[in-house]
Design goal:
With about 425 residues, the chain is α/β, with parallel strands linked by helices. It is built from 19 helices and 9 strands. The chain has helices at about 15-20, 60-70, 80-95, 110-120, 130-145, 155-165, 175-190, 190-205, 220-230, 255-260, 275-290, 310-320, 330-335, 355-360, 370-380, 380-385, 390-400, 400-420, 420-425; strands at about 5, 25-30, 35, 55, 75, 100, 120, 340-345, 350. The chain has a 5-stranded mixed beta sheet with strand order 2-1-5-6-7, sandwiched between helices. A two-stranded antiparallel sheet has the order 3-4. Helix 6 (about 155-165) crosses helix 14 (about 355-360), helix 12 packs across helix 13 (about 330-335) and helix 15 (about 370-380) packs antiparallel against helix 17. It is globular, with a radius of gyration of 23 Å.
């Protein structure tokens, strides 16, 4: 009997196909294949804070149904992050008549993939952090974006630019995903969005660990690989890297064994070809950490110099603790593409007229970094406290000023009565009980 394994990126299909062999189909969703309605109003959210309508990509949905047809089990191997859990939940709704399993794949070498499939567990349908975040952000955007875009992450970021807050972000220790993007901008002059694409490509090629990680710790096996690499380069470690903890979904970003073979610590990475340059910047920092800074090279992170707009935005997000690994690059690109900022006289960033209108139209509490972080913390605790999305969202709404709470309740009530039931049924992929 044939089984189906579902992944996100088409670039991974070959690795999974070769690893699993006969008896397996591999289907790539190409990211999210189900979206909310493009317009923020009506909200399509009921008084229980449940979504009542989402729109599938008709082509991808039909392709998924065909892939599911005739298989025994469906193995959900989407990424082990919030976005991957949302995609897995959407696939599970389509394949609800099949035996469903969750697979967590850490790396893309064949044995790791096969081991992950052997360790697959029965899929448990539950509210996900990604779904909860999507609902609360749609509520906030739909209710309070009167005269421009209004977001829980971008609003405090733009308010910080308006205040002229400190921009520079010092990097230290093993880098997270966001810090790696910032380092590639500084070391190799790679724009943030391009850096995100490069890291994803290296991951899909089996040369880099999972990129969109906030983790800074490393498994014993990875630490052994990195220590051996450093010794072979005549730079024996004097310090241990931090160990991965149970709270980290993914370990710290690092070249895989294959990736380390492409690394050279001698020439300046700027003079190396593309993939080798990126991998070498990462490896240099890890050796730097393992030797307590006793290395014959320096990093641009120690230099004060004019910063590019995307670098300034990313640095501010990291300093403020805004955004998640999976959304950092897209937030930066949106601000630049929507022309919400412009270069100031001193070479920094200032709000454009459009950006100023956005900030002026945003409630003061939504421009507060503390509120944005408190929302994110509440969502991130879902997996630990095992609370349903409704309870988490109710708690988040209760933190708002009373008039804002009333506006949300009123908007949901009015939208529920105004939405045509036939339209709602037409665009809904499914409806939870």
């Amino acid at each position: 009997m044939v089984n189906l394994i579902v992944i996100e990126a088409p670039g991974k299909i070959e690795a999974f196909t070769l690893a699993l062999g006969r008896g397996w189909r591999v289907f790539a969703t190409k990211g999210h294949f189900v979206q909310n309605p493009e317009r923020l109003r009506p909200l399509y959210i009921d008084r229980r804070f449940k979504e009542t309508a989402r729109i599938p990509d008709p082509v991808r949905l039909e392709e998924l149904k065909k892939a599911i047809c005739g298989v025994s089990g469906v193995y959900l191997a989407t990424d082990a992050d919030d976005e991957g859990e949302v995609i897995a939940a959407d696939v599970a709704r389509v394949a609800r008549e099949k035996d469903l399993y969750r697979v967590i794949v850490r790396d893309l070498d064949h044995e790791t993939i096969r081991a992950a499939v052997r360790n697959a567990v029965k899929y448990k349908r539950r509210d996900t952090a990604g779904t909860t975040r999507r609902i609360i952000d749609r509520i906030l955007g739909g209710v309070f974006s009167k005269n421009g875009g209004c977001g829980r992450v971008l609003s405090p970021l733009l308010a910080s630019i308006e205040r002229g807050d400190e921009t520079y972000c010092e990097l230290s220790g093993p880098w997270s995903y966001g810090e790696t993007l910032l380092a590639l901008r500084r070391e190799l002059n790679i724009p943030v969005q391009e850096g995100a694409k490069r890291l994803q490509k290296l991951y899909e090629g089996g040369l880099l660990s999972y990129p969109r990680t906030a983790g800074r710790g490393f498994s014993p096996e990875t630490q052994r690989d990195l220590i051996l690499f450093a010794r072979r380069r005549n730079m024996p470690p004097t310090l241990d890297l931090p160990a991965a903890t149970g709270s980290e979904v993914h370990e710290g970003l690092h070249p895989t064994r294959r990736g380390l073979e492409m690394v050279t610590l001698g020439p300046d990475p700027k003079n190396l070809p593309g993939d080798s340059a990126v991998l070498s910047v990462l490896a240099r920092n890890l050796v730097f950490c393992m030797r307590g800074g006793d290395v014959p090279w320096t990093f641009c992170r120690h230099e004060r110099r004019p910063l590019a707009p995307d670098e300034i935005l990313l640095a501010k997000m990291l300093r403020l603790g805004l955004g998640r690994p999976s959304t950092l690059a897209s937030h930066v690109s949106r601000i630049i593409d929507d022309r919400l900022v412009e270069t100031s006289r001193n070479g920094g960033l200032a709000l454009s007229p459009k950006g100023r209108r956005w900030v002026d139209a945003t409630p003061s509490w939504l421009k507060d970094v503390g509120y944005s972080i408190s929302v994110e913390n509440a969502i991130n605790q879902m997996s630990m406290v095992h609370k349903p999305a409704r309870a988490i969202i109710s708690n988040i709404v209760s933190l708002l000023p009373l008039d804002a709470q009333e506006q949300i309740i009123d908007a949901i009530s009015r939208d529920e009565t105004s939405v045509d039931n036939q339209e709602r049924e037409t665009i809904a992929i499914s409806r939870d009980s």
